[in-house]
Each structure stands twice: as C-alpha cells, then as structure tokens.
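Worked example

This section walks through a single chain of length 120. The input is the sequence exactly as stored; nothing has been trimmed or padded.
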Amino acid sequence: MRTLDIKICEGAGAYICVEESALMDSIEGKRGEARFKPPYPPSKGFVGQGRPTLINNVETLMNIPAILLNGARWFSQIGTDKSKGTKVFSVSGDVDRPGVCEFVNGQPARRGRRGLGACP
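Given that input, the structure is written out below as tokens.
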C-alpha cells in the first residue's frame, strides 16, 4: 500500500479563500483569487507539482471524524434533503460570548440568531 502525505496549511484568511483555487493561491503565497477551471485541483494540483491535490477548508475537514465514527448514513440524516450537515459561524465583536457556533442546516433562522453571541 502506498503512503498518504497530509499537509495542513494556513491560508491568508480572506473570504474568497473558501474557494479551492483561491485557497491554493493563498497557500502558495499569492493573492487568493479564483482560477478558471479546468484543470481541477484533484487532477492537476499545485503549480509546479503536477500531482493530484485534495484541498478543503477547515469547515469541510471538521466533518471527517464524525462521519468516520458514525457513518455516511448518519451524516446524511442531518440537515435538509438539499443541504446536509451543519454550518459554522464565527461570532466576534460586541457580543455576549464570542466564539464559533455550529448550527444544523435548515434550522429556523430565528433560532440561529438567538444562538449567535451566546455560543455554548
């Protein structure tokens, strides 16, 4: 069996860097901007390497342990038919309790707003 190298990198933190090609630019030290596709990262990868690259933001990666522990069927039951899982919100500024809040996709917005600023 071949080995799998995993490298965790920190991007610049710009909003555009949630898009995979912009995140690659940021990791490569460039300004994060979305690239025209194809080529797609899983087939072409980082510039100069030419190897397949799986690139995701932390919000996507944070779901992996729970899915591995509980299974894909379990995860597919969270959220709505068209939007599975949860959504993470960063809360900062003049709020009671800043932090990161996670809400189930499809829950009423009123319930989410009530929770923002009072992260458990």
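What to look for: The longest strand covers residues 86-91.
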